[in-house]
Amino acid sequence: MIQAKKLYFSYTGSPPYVLNGIDLEIHAGEYVSVVGENGCGKSTLMRLILRFLKPTSGEIATRAKRIGYVPQKSDFSNSGFPITVYEMLNSYRRLLKLKDKGIPRKSLERVGMSAFSDSLMGNLSGGQTQKILVARALIGNPDLLILDEPSTGVDVGSQKEIYGFLKEINRKGRITIVSVEHNLEAAVANSTLIYHLVDGKGHTCSPRQYADEYLRENRIGG
After folding, report:
1. Where are the chain's structural domains?
2. What is the enclosing helix (H) or strand (E) of 210?
Protein backbone atom coordinates (compact mmCIF):
# COMPACT_ATOMS: atom_id res chain seq x y z
CA MET A 1 0.00 0.00 0.00
CA ILE A 2 2.80 2.47 0.95
CA GLN A 3 6.51 2.08 0.25
CA ALA A 4 9.36 4.49 0.94
CA LYS A 5 12.99 3.83 -0.08
CA LYS A 6 15.95 5.92 1.07
CA LEU A 7 13.57 8.83 1.64
CA TYR A 8 15.14 12.17 2.55
CA PHE A 9 13.30 15.43 3.09
CA SER A 10 14.34 18.96 3.99
CA TYR A 11 12.18 22.06 3.77
CA THR A 12 15.22 23.97 2.49
CA GLY A 13 16.28 21.26 0.02
CA SER A 14 19.61 20.71 1.80
CA PRO A 15 20.86 19.26 5.14
CA PRO A 16 19.90 19.01 7.93
CA TYR A 17 17.10 16.67 6.91
CA VAL A 18 13.75 16.33 8.69
CA LEU A 19 13.56 12.75 7.36
CA ASN A 20 16.89 11.04 6.99
CA GLY A 21 16.99 7.89 4.83
CA ILE A 22 13.54 6.46 5.63
CA ASP A 23 12.75 2.90 4.52
CA LEU A 24 9.13 1.98 5.19
CA GLU A 25 6.64 -0.58 3.88
CA ILE A 26 2.98 -0.64 4.91
CA HIS A 27 0.79 -3.45 3.59
CA ALA A 28 -2.93 -3.30 2.83
CA GLY A 29 -5.10 -3.93 5.89
CA GLU A 30 -2.59 -2.77 8.49
CA TYR A 31 -3.19 -0.19 11.22
CA VAL A 32 0.05 1.70 11.71
CA SER A 33 0.63 4.35 14.37
CA VAL A 34 3.50 6.77 13.69
CA VAL A 35 4.98 7.89 17.00
CA GLY A 36 7.89 9.99 18.20
CA GLU A 37 8.80 13.23 19.95
CA ASN A 38 7.66 16.61 18.65
CA GLY A 39 9.68 17.67 15.61
CA CYS A 40 10.83 14.15 14.70
CA GLY A 41 9.13 14.26 11.28
CA LYS A 42 5.78 12.50 11.87
CA SER A 43 3.55 15.08 10.19
CA THR A 44 6.10 15.62 7.43
CA LEU A 45 5.97 11.91 6.62
CA MET A 46 2.16 12.09 6.43
CA ARG A 47 2.36 15.05 4.04
CA LEU A 48 4.73 13.09 1.81
CA ILE A 49 2.35 10.10 1.78
CA LEU A 50 -0.49 12.47 0.86
CA ARG A 51 1.71 14.08 -1.85
CA PHE A 52 1.38 17.50 -0.28
CA LEU A 53 5.20 17.50 -0.31
CA LYS A 54 7.81 16.02 -2.64
CA PRO A 55 10.90 14.15 -1.40
CA THR A 56 14.24 15.92 -1.47
CA SER A 57 15.61 12.56 -2.62
CA GLY A 58 14.56 8.93 -2.56
CA GLU A 59 11.16 7.48 -3.36
CA ILE A 60 7.73 7.18 -1.78
CA ALA A 61 4.80 5.45 -3.49
CA THR A 62 1.19 5.16 -2.35
CA ARG A 63 -0.91 2.58 -4.17
CA ALA A 64 -4.30 3.41 -2.68
CA LYS A 65 -7.24 3.88 -5.03
CA ARG A 66 -8.66 6.59 -2.78
CA ILE A 67 -7.26 8.21 0.37
CA GLY A 68 -9.31 9.65 3.23
CA TYR A 69 -7.60 12.27 5.38
CA VAL A 70 -8.49 13.49 8.87
CA PRO A 71 -6.43 16.60 9.72
CA GLN A 72 -5.32 17.50 13.22
CA LYS A 73 -7.51 20.58 13.38
CA SER A 74 -10.76 21.39 11.65
CA ASP A 75 -11.05 24.35 9.32
CA PHE A 76 -14.32 25.04 11.14
CA SER A 77 -12.97 25.00 14.70
CA ASN A 78 -13.74 28.20 16.59
CA SER A 79 -15.38 29.52 13.45
CA GLY A 80 -18.68 31.31 13.15
CA PHE A 81 -19.02 30.36 9.49
CA PRO A 82 -22.68 29.28 9.20
CA ILE A 83 -22.43 25.85 7.60
CA THR A 84 -24.20 22.77 8.88
CA VAL A 85 -22.73 19.30 9.20
CA TYR A 86 -24.84 18.05 6.29
CA GLU A 87 -23.93 21.01 4.07
CA MET A 88 -20.21 20.46 4.71
CA LEU A 89 -20.40 16.74 3.95
CA ASN A 90 -22.59 17.26 0.90
CA SER A 91 -20.13 19.85 -0.47
CA TYR A 92 -17.38 17.24 -0.14
CA ARG A 93 -19.57 14.66 -1.92
CA ARG A 94 -20.04 17.09 -4.78
CA LEU A 95 -16.31 17.83 -4.86
CA LEU A 96 -15.68 14.10 -5.34
CA LYS A 97 -18.40 14.08 -8.06
CA LEU A 98 -20.35 11.31 -6.34
CA LYS A 99 -23.93 11.02 -7.60
CA ASP A 100 -25.56 9.36 -4.58
CA LYS A 101 -27.10 12.23 -2.57
CA GLY A 102 -27.65 9.90 0.39
CA ILE A 103 -23.90 9.48 0.99
CA PRO A 104 -23.56 12.27 3.62
CA ARG A 105 -26.30 10.78 5.81
CA LYS A 106 -24.92 7.25 5.38
CA SER A 107 -21.49 8.51 6.43
CA LEU A 108 -22.98 10.17 9.53
CA GLU A 109 -24.71 6.91 10.43
CA ARG A 110 -21.37 5.07 10.29
CA VAL A 111 -19.91 7.30 13.02
CA GLY A 112 -23.08 7.57 15.10
CA MET A 113 -23.63 11.26 14.37
CA SER A 114 -26.94 11.25 12.45
CA ALA A 115 -28.59 13.47 15.07
CA PHE A 116 -26.14 16.29 14.30
CA SER A 117 -26.90 16.60 10.59
CA ASP A 118 -28.43 20.08 10.97
CA SER A 119 -25.99 21.34 13.62
CA LEU A 120 -23.59 24.15 12.79
CA MET A 121 -19.99 22.96 12.51
CA GLY A 122 -18.78 25.82 14.70
CA ASN A 123 -21.05 24.72 17.57
CA LEU A 124 -19.69 21.18 17.87
CA SER A 125 -17.44 19.96 20.67
CA GLY A 126 -13.95 18.67 19.93
CA GLY A 127 -15.09 15.05 20.00
CA GLN A 128 -18.12 15.71 17.82
CA THR A 129 -16.02 17.63 15.31
CA GLN A 130 -13.50 14.82 15.07
CA LYS A 131 -16.25 12.27 14.41
CA ILE A 132 -17.62 14.47 11.64
CA LEU A 133 -14.14 14.77 10.11
CA VAL A 134 -13.86 10.98 10.15
CA ALA A 135 -17.28 10.81 8.45
CA ARG A 136 -16.04 13.24 5.79
CA ALA A 137 -12.89 11.19 5.21
CA LEU A 138 -14.98 8.05 4.67
CA ILE A 139 -17.04 9.61 1.89
CA GLY A 140 -16.01 7.85 -1.29
CA ASN A 141 -15.06 4.61 0.50
CA PRO A 142 -11.27 5.08 0.78
CA ASP A 143 -9.01 2.07 1.06
CA LEU A 144 -6.44 4.15 2.96
CA LEU A 145 -7.29 6.44 5.89
CA ILE A 146 -4.68 8.86 7.24
CA LEU A 147 -5.17 10.69 10.53
CA ASP A 148 -3.06 13.36 12.21
CA GLU A 149 -3.34 13.02 16.02
CA PRO A 150 -7.03 12.03 16.11
CA SER A 151 -7.40 12.39 19.90
CA THR A 152 -6.10 15.99 20.16
CA GLY A 153 -8.69 18.18 21.88
CA VAL A 154 -11.10 15.24 22.27
CA ASP A 155 -12.66 14.14 25.58
CA VAL A 156 -11.86 10.67 26.92
CA GLY A 157 -15.29 9.22 26.12
CA SER A 158 -15.15 10.38 22.50
CA GLN A 159 -11.58 9.11 22.19
CA LYS A 160 -12.75 5.60 23.10
CA GLU A 161 -15.57 5.80 20.56
CA ILE A 162 -13.31 7.09 17.79
CA TYR A 163 -10.57 4.51 18.36
CA GLY A 164 -13.16 1.74 18.67
CA PHE A 165 -14.65 2.75 15.33
CA LEU A 166 -11.24 3.02 13.65
CA LYS A 167 -10.30 -0.44 14.88
CA GLU A 168 -13.59 -1.84 13.59
CA ILE A 169 -13.28 -0.40 10.06
CA ASN A 170 -9.68 -1.58 9.94
CA ARG A 171 -10.48 -5.14 11.00
CA LYS A 172 -13.89 -5.61 9.35
CA GLY A 173 -13.78 -3.06 6.55
CA ARG A 174 -10.16 -3.80 5.63
CA ILE A 175 -9.34 -0.09 5.47
CA THR A 176 -5.62 0.52 5.90
CA ILE A 177 -5.02 3.13 8.61
CA VAL A 178 -1.95 5.28 9.19
CA SER A 179 -2.24 7.57 12.20
CA VAL A 180 0.21 10.10 13.62
CA GLU A 181 -0.11 9.57 17.36
CA HIS A 182 0.81 11.37 20.55
CA ASN A 183 -1.63 9.12 22.44
CA LEU A 184 0.81 6.28 23.05
CA GLU A 185 -1.62 4.17 25.05
CA ALA A 186 -4.08 4.23 22.14
CA ALA A 187 -1.28 3.45 19.68
CA VAL A 188 -0.31 0.31 21.60
CA ALA A 189 -3.92 -0.79 22.15
CA ASN A 190 -5.19 -0.37 18.58
CA SER A 191 -2.34 -0.70 16.08
CA THR A 192 -1.09 -3.76 14.28
CA LEU A 193 2.30 -2.02 13.85
CA ILE A 194 4.16 0.93 15.36
CA TYR A 195 6.50 3.10 13.31
CA HIS A 196 8.82 4.92 15.72
CA LEU A 197 10.60 8.03 14.44
CA VAL A 198 13.66 9.42 16.23
CA ASP A 199 15.62 12.34 14.78
CA GLY A 200 14.35 11.70 11.27
CA LYS A 201 15.05 7.96 11.29
CA GLY A 202 12.47 5.27 11.90
CA HIS A 203 11.95 1.61 12.64
CA THR A 204 8.91 -0.68 12.66
CA CYS A 205 7.98 -2.83 15.64
CA SER A 206 4.96 -4.56 17.11
CA PRO A 207 2.84 -2.73 19.70
CA ARG A 208 4.08 -5.14 22.38
CA GLN A 209 7.72 -4.56 21.44
CA TYR A 210 7.17 -0.81 21.57
CA ALA A 211 5.51 -1.08 24.98
CA ASP A 212 8.36 -3.23 26.29
CA GLU A 213 11.30 -1.37 24.77
CA TYR A 214 10.20 2.25 24.93
CA LEU A 215 7.15 2.93 27.06
CA ARG A 216 8.46 1.08 30.11
CA GLU A 217 11.90 2.63 29.81
CA ASN A 218 10.31 6.07 29.87
CA ARG A 219 7.63 5.14 32.42
CA ILE A 220 4.88 6.05 29.99
CA GLY A 221 1.83 3.83 29.93
CA GLY A 222 2.23 0.16 30.69
Report:
1. 1-65+144-149+176-222
2. helix 207-210
The CATH fold assigned to 1-65+144-149+176-222 is Rossmann fold (3.40.50)
Q: What's the longest Cα–Cα distance across the chain?
A: 52
pTM above 0.85, yes or no: yes
* Residues whose CB is less than 8 angstroms from the CB of residue 161 and which lie 6 or more positions away in sequence, other chains included: 112, 127, 131
- How does pLDDT run across 48-82, given as a tens digit for each residue? 999 999 999 999 999 999 999 998 765 555 556 68
Confirm if 2 and 28 have CB atoms less than 8 A apart.
no
DSSP for 112-148, written as a single string: T-GGGTTSBGGG--HHHHHHHHHHHHHTT--SEEEEE
Spatial distance between the Cα atoms of 12 and 89, rounded to a whole number of angstroms: 36
The values of phi and psi at residue 203, to 5°, are -145, 150
